[in-house]
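Narrative of accomplishments. A recurring question from our advisory board has been how the design workflow behaves on a single, concrete structure rather than in aggregate. To address it, we present the structure tokens for one chain from the evaluation set, followed by the sequence designed for it. No filtering or post-editing was applied between the two.
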């Protein structure tokens, strides 16, 4: 009798839990509906921290703003397939970057690298343009350089564009833990959960995303999607709180240690390009917050782009700065999505600026 009573009580508890979950599901489904976003799970990588899965398709929102299709090829890149040997009479351009360039919230054809390819070929330049999008969301320059050394260099591109985003690339390079400066020498290391806040964050995300039944639940349950978004926000806040480089650092100022680490990583990328006789070009993408500050008539932070321009010149790296172009636009907000990523129009303006720069410098 005792066992029967215990079983009955346990069954009653389970039924109560399922009823409560059902009521919550009904509430969120009809009162606070959530987007049923099935994420593309990241894949753990000892050297890169993570990468995108190969030959995978997803339909999701760029940080819950605009639905878009995300498809990867056999290398885990958001692009079609490319032969290692390029066709004769073709100029091959490879892009490295993060979610601004991969890009969140826009279709592949809307990204600036593909709009650049289409517009350049429509202008019937003296060579056909082929572009490879090797940008991956969440990457810092450290991961971009490692990816280039592992995969990108094999394609022997004529031009390599590295898109530097002022909003978070300094932080990403520090948090990645892939490169460290020791006695002014750049040392490449294998990141670990102890040395890399980014690896700790993505290890947790990967465990969650690959939990049995997770993708089925987020594809159908509004309650699960609500909890997922709340937990993801919590992990992001905790990760940032665990990585505060300098409590006395003023807003919009560059931490000197971050600057030294980042520029040494970028210098390594420039050297890699020259090893395979590729032209390195840095594309500077401004943060919308800085553009808005300037448009309001307040002094904007121009230290980063001007200092990065000087660095590029000293290291024989071409430099395209979008800051002035975006500031001059009478409706600069239209160049960005509400989440801070570039809009299709922002991508189009960027593509046109790259074409103008390459033509003016007689590279195309």
């Amino acid at each position: 009798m005792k066992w029967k009573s215990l079983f009955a009580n346990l069954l009653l508890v389970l039924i109560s839990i399922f009823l409560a979950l059902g009521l919550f599901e009904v509430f969120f489904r009809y009162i606070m509906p959530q987007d049923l976003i099935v994420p593309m799970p990241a894949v753990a990588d000892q050297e890169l921290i993570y990468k995108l899965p190969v030959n995978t398709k997803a339909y999701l929102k760029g940080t819950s703003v605009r639905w878009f299709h995300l498809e990867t090829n056999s290398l885990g890149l958001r692009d079609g397939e490319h032969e290692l040997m390029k066709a004769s009479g073709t100029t091959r351009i490879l892009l490295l970057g993060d979610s601004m360039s991969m890009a969140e919230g826009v279709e592949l054809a809307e990204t600036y690298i593909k709009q650049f390819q289409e517009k350049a070929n429509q202008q019937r330049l003296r060579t056909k343009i082929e572009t490879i999008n090797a940008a991956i969301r969440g990457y810092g320059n450290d991961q971009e350089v490692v990816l280039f050394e592992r995969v990108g260099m094999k394609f022997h591109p004529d031009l390599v564009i590295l898109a530097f985003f002022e909003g978070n690339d300094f932080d990403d390079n520090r948090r990645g833990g892939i490169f460290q400066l020791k006695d002014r020498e750049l040392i490449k290391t294998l990141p670990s959960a102890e040395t890399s806040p980014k690896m700790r964050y993505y290890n947790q995300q990967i465990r969650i995303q690959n939990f049995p039944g997770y993708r089925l639940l987020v594809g159908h349950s509004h309650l699960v999607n609500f909890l997922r978004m709340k937990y993801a926000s919590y992990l992001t806040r905790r990760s940032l709180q665990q990585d505060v480089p300098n409590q006395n650092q003023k807003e919009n100022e560059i931490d000197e240690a971050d600057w030294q680490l980042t520029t040494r990583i970028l210098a390594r990328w420039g050297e890699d390009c020259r090893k395979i006789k590729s032209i390195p070009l840095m594309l500077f993408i401004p943060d919308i917050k800085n553009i808005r500050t300037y448009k309001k008539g307040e002094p904007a932070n121009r230290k980063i782009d001007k200092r990065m321009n000087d660095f590029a010149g000293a290291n024989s790296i071409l430099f395209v700065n979008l800051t002035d172009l975006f500031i001059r636009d009478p409706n600069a907000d239209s160049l960005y999505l509400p989440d801070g990523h570039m809009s299709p129009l922002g991508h189009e303006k960027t593509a046109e600026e790259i074409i103008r720069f390459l033509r003016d410098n007689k590279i195309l």
